[in-house]
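Bumping with the actual sequence this time:
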Amino acid sequence: MENLFSLKELSVLDIHKIINNALEFKKGKTCKSLAGKKVANLFFEPSTRTHYSFVSAEANLGMVVVDFNKETSSVKKGESLYDTIKTFEAVGFDVVVIRHPQNSYFNQLQGINIPILNGGDGTENHPTQSLLDLMTIKEEYGHFEGLKCAIVGDIRHSRVAHTNIEVMQRLGMEVYVSGPKEFDDGAGEYIDFEKALTEMDIIMLLRVQYERHGYEIQLSKEEYLKEYGLTMDKVNRMKNEAIIMHPAPFNRKTEIDDDVVECSKSRIFKQMTNGVYIRMAVLERALN
């Protein structure tokens, strides 16, 4: 049984194994051993990409898929997270995928005897998103060592940023943060956005997470786009081989302009495609 809570628990070798397995799935590898296994997707926060790429991955593997609805469950009666997951274990599910707003929610799930895959917790961890980001970078450059990445935007509220900064540094990348100062929580070395545009191999934009803010952002959407968003004139100042990434969903005309979303440097939708193969790889790891 292999849980996946945080990439900090995985060695660099483990991370490379997952990425390489995902690349094999993308090339057409099949896995029949998971066919018929039962998986429950428990998303306690809204999600499109993570949720439904897991569903797509599970379908590709021939698994029996159930999507949990907290609004029609005993959670509404006060059932604890532990008891909810223990119920899925008791009635015969083989693995669960959980997205939850609480940081490190999995610490309260000691005693669960089926694999748990973290689909994102609070503002701390998003392991499969980071893995699909790394897969996309490896496809692009063939390596990680020495690459420069600037993560731009709402660092403070981003589990994607906090996960990627740690793992990218372990893989030998130079990682910087940029964006409004009120979003800088000290998680990485700050770089001026204009400087990042001309020096970075990867510009990774983050969504401004209005729903998480305990305060009002000082910039209007128009001001944010002008100061820290990607417009085509800024894209044209990037290195020729540099790429644009974003975990999505994205706020068009805030952190990214319409014509940048699918421009030649953008890998945003490729990231989404790769998410299916990464999630196939972590499901196989969990159950084999």
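The tokens above came from a reply further down the thread. The domain at 127-268 is CATH 3.40.50.1370 (Rossmann fold).
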